[in-house]
Amino acid sequence: MATLISDPQPEDIILFDDTTREHPLTYKFIEDFEKYEGLKVHTAAYTHTRSPGLVGFDAMNNNKSYLPNRTKRICTTELKVETTKRYLKSLGIKQIEQFIGFRADEERRVKSFKPTWKNSTTRFPLYEQGINKAMVNEFWANKPYNLEIPPILGNCDLCFLKGKNAIIKILSHYPDLAEKWIRDEEEMSKKKKNGPARYFKDVTYKQLLAAAQSQTALFEGNSLYDIPPAYSCSCNNF
Question: Which of 117, 161, 198, 208 is the most exposed, fewest CB within 10 Å of its CB?
Answer without folding.
Answer: 117
